[in-house]
């Protein structure tokens, strides 16, 4: 007797369309729409991935905005300059965060009005205004949350 309602419920579940996953093109369009210069984001994203792959923390410092707030090891750090990030990189950017960054699927990036989250929000990158009228911008790391 209970089998018939259970089969009907299962049939309904099978008929409900699965949520459409976003594509890389969707992510690109979201970044372009919210921040502009999506190509600039992907250039910086690629450089930072290469830096993780080749053990180059200096590049991360070159593409970060300071002071940089880093949450690591249960503490919050205000990293004041590039050299501080490079000297303490493995403590400030955990192995898991580095691997998540390295293995990030573009279709799974988090895109909000605040920036682009990599590694499920472990690293946030944004297109930051460099002048009052925002005529000049630059993509860079704005926060790290291990």
Amino-to-carboxy terminus distance:
51 Å
Kindly state the percentage of residues in helix.
40-55%
Order of helices and strands: HHHHEEHHHEEEE
Strand residue content:
15-25%
Number of helices: 7
Rg (CA only): 20 Å
* Total separate domains: 1
If you average the pLDDT, what whole number results? Answer: 89
**Shape descriptor:** globular
Query: Which regions are unreliable across 5 or more consecutive residues at pLDDT < 50?
Result: 1-20
Major sheet size, sense and barrel closure: 6 strands, mixed
**Would you count the extended β strands for me?**
6
Structural class: alpha+beta
Q: Give the spatial strand order of the biggest sheet.
A: 2-1-6-5-4-3
Task: Quickly list its features.
single chain, 146 residues, alpha+beta, six-stranded mixed beta sheet, 7 helices, 24% strand, globular
Detailed description of the structure:
By secondary structure, the chain is of the alpha+beta class. It has one domain. About 45% of the residues lie in helices and about 25% in strands. It has 7 helices and 6 strands. It has a 6-stranded mixed β-sheet. Strand 1 (about 65-70) and strand 2 form a beta hairpin. Helix 3 crosses helix 7 (about 95-100). The longest helix has 16 residues, at about 40-55. The termini are far apart.
């Amino acid at each position: 007797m209970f089998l018939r309602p259970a089969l009907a419920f299962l049939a309904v579940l099978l008929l409900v369309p699965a949520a459409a996953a976003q594509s890389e093109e969707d992510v690109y369009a979201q970044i372009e729409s919210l921040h502009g210069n999506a190509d600039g984001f992907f250039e910086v994203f690629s450089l930072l991935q290469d830096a993780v792959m080749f053990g180059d923390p200096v590049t991360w410092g070159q593409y970060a905005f300071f002071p940089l707030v880093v949450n690591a090891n249960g503490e919050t750090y205000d990293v004041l300059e590039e050299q501080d990030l490079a000297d303490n990189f493995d403590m400030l950017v955990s192995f898991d965060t580095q691997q998540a960054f390295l293995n990030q699927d573009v279709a799974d990036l988090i895109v909000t009005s605040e920036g682009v989250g990599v590694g499920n929000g472990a690293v946030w990158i944004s297109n930051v205004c460099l002048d009052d009228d925002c005529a000049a911008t630059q993509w860079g790391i704005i926060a790290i949350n291990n």
